[in-house]
Design a protein that fits this description.
The chain is of the alpha+beta class. It has one domain. The chain has one helix at residues 15-27; strands at residues 2-10, 31-39, 46-57. Strands 1-3-2 form a 3-stranded antiparallel β-sheet, covered by helices on one side.
């Protein structure tokens, strides 16, 4: 088994958007791993939130994800 991660970016941060996001992905089999907030100096409210989820997946042949395939390569 290997861990798989999912990150969701929320540009509108309210209790409702956080609740909807967490409930949607937990219902799809993901486990909440954490929430990270991006703050602005001029406001006490977060401007963005990054919600992290994790789940176990079975290891299989060719299951590795390269940086290029994931869209992060050059």
């Amino acid at each position: 088994m290997s861990l798989r991660y999912k990150f969701v970016e929320l540009s509108t941060v309210t209790d409702e958007t956080l609740e909807l996001c967490v409930n949607e992905w937990v219902a799809a089999g993901w486990v909440l791993d954490g929430i990270h907030f991006a703050m602005r100096d001029s406001s006490r409210r977060p401007s963005m939130a990054f919600v992290a989820f994790v789940r176990n997946t079975p290891d299989g042949p060719g299951d590795g994800v390269s940086v290029e395939r994931a869209g992060g390569g050059e």
